[in-house]
Amino acid sequence: MAYTSNITDYSPSFFNVMMLINSMNITIKDREDVGRRLVSEATGKNLSRVYSRLDYLGTLKENWDGENALPVSKKVISNLKNVLLLSDDNDWENWLIGPDTNATLGLQSKKTHACISIGNDEYSFYTENNGKELSDSHINFTPESFLSLMRQIG
Questions:
Q1: Model pTM greater than 0.85?
Q2: Helix or strand or coil: residue 64?
Q3: Hey, is 38 helix, strand or coil?
Q4: CA 100, CA 72: separation in Å to the nearest integer?
Q5: How far is CA 29 from CA 26, 78, 79, in A?
Q6: Pairing between strand 95-99 and 115-118?
Q7: 60-95 pLDDT tens trace
Q8: CA-wise closest residue to 97 among 42, 151, 47
Q9: Angle at the Cα of 60 (from 58 to 64), degrees rounded to 5?
Q10: Could you give the strand order of the β-sheet that contains 115-118, starting from the edge strand earlier in sequence?
Q11: Residue 6 C-alpha from the chain's centroid
């Protein structure tokens, strides 16, 4: 039996998203790509977990640690969300995200124990590779370079 739907099957937010996608001046293939990406982000357990975590971290207020910690910068949250837009679900499988007291975020790999700190305009990292310590700081932030580093050291 074929399923036929009508507009009442969907929530208003789903309807609004579909209307927006269909109003874009993009090819059918690009619309399909957008649809696949939305499904991936909505159903991928790692991407969903990271989006939820970032939403929570964005709600932290000043003194969230009881010792005058600054809230996470909105730009830092935005930076990491821009990385998520380029990411695959498996890119985030081993990464944990936590706030730092100076309004930045820290990422740590459960797999390699590598650490990345992300700020408003820059990021830094530390890892070990075959017993050799590797680190760099004050790297200009771009979503592409950040994701590339995550994939290399995570």
A1: no
A2: coil
A3: helix
A4: 8
A5: 8, 28, 28
A6: unpaired
A7: 999 999 999 999 999 999 999 999 888 999 999 999
A8: 47
A9: 155
A10: 95-99, 105-109, 115-118, 122-129, 132-140
A11: 33
